[in-house]
User: What shape does this take?
Amino acid sequence: MRALIFTEGGSQIGLGHISRCSSLYDELLDREIEVEFIINSDTSQIEIIKNKQYKVINWLSKEFLTNYIKQSDYCIVDSYLASQDLYLVISNQSKKSLFIDDNGRIEYPEGIVVNPSLSTEAVKYPINDTNCYLLGTKYIILRSPFIQVNRENINPQVKEVLITLGGSDIHNLTPSILNRLGNKNSEITFNVVIGSAFNNIEEIKSFSSKNINFYENVSAREMKSIMLRSDFAITAAGQTIYELLATQTPFIPIKVIDNQHYNLLALKECNLIETALEYNDTFFSEKLIFEFENLMKFSTRAEWVKKYKGVIDGLGSRRIIETLLSGEIMEKEYFLRKVKDEDIFDVFQLSNEDYVRKHSINTTKIDWQDHKVWFQNIIKSDNQVFFVVTDYTDRFLGQLRYKIEDKSAIVSISFGKTIVGKGLSKELLKKSIELIYEERNELENIIAYVSNDNIASKKLFEKVGFILHESNNSLFRYVYSFK
Assistant: This one.
């Protein structure tokens, strides 16, 4: 068995794809699978994967892919450059393919599509029978040192600030930031990380000062250590933001390339930032200083550290590789279990999907802070029975919640796109009814309220045995009786 990882990176496009794919490489290697990077790059030496098996070559040709990929190979593709035709070649040539996507760039051929993002809302994917979609926080890819890290304390006074612009500082921002902040804050140590693809190293190092430390080509462990020492960070809005969230390091994100747009949208959607900077903003320096001074406040940093905790569990690589190697999601391998604290973000994301809100009694989008309060009240309540749907990798796929009122239970259902349209809703609802009756056998009936235009839900409840009891202009009341 062999796994091939096709990706790209270099001085102009950064090393974010290579960095996140290195975590998938390690996960495959831990399972004793032969794995190789195939990298389209303008540099032959790539420091962050120097101890891994890799080949630097322009793989963006049908001829190369056809000759290199074997029918027994598993293929992972993380690319902004490959065409849809090339993805199709990889899908057809390999045993199984997995495509990492951040922005719905193309319509993908048969395979697994992974969007390792904070949001399942920003990018819309077609519902079909040829793709398995792995979306959201459970699939965020972290390098192994960043898994389940805990920031132990928050300094009352800022002592160290991290500056990291990714693998390549393509807009020469680091000197500008040091010029604006370094000399004026001599009491603060600035930890400046220089990537292997930087073209401006000499200019950056010209800012030699007692309060500026330079780190070149740091390992993942070294990066984690620097983050935990730093009170906050100034960062490009690429893969590094997930490592900052994992270490609970407050940060000022800068959009340095267009493909970081969705990262910033998701951060804002989840209330994990208030402001994002853009490198070409006329008032970039002024906004940077404003955000910098804001994070100098202990209360501001403490609030962000609290918000970051638990957002990413760091098991994304394991879940992704398990799905790749185990085959497509099996229809008979869906499970119902009780909700857990760590489901809070998945429940929030699913509840805010457009198609879920459209048919809810309250169609307004849910605020993250309101959701946290609601979720904690729900899971602590004796009058709520809350099931979530998972697969064999414990991937969150949907929810069924019952609110107990006297001898009745009001059911609320929402399923993720992965299982919508597969004919599983009926079986999942029936199973949840069996489980709640085992737990609350004093119940006499279950009530479902369905909006007038939600044809699919009306059919679902009728198939399971619910009877329409009454309706008004916009809402139908269905009842399932145990007696």
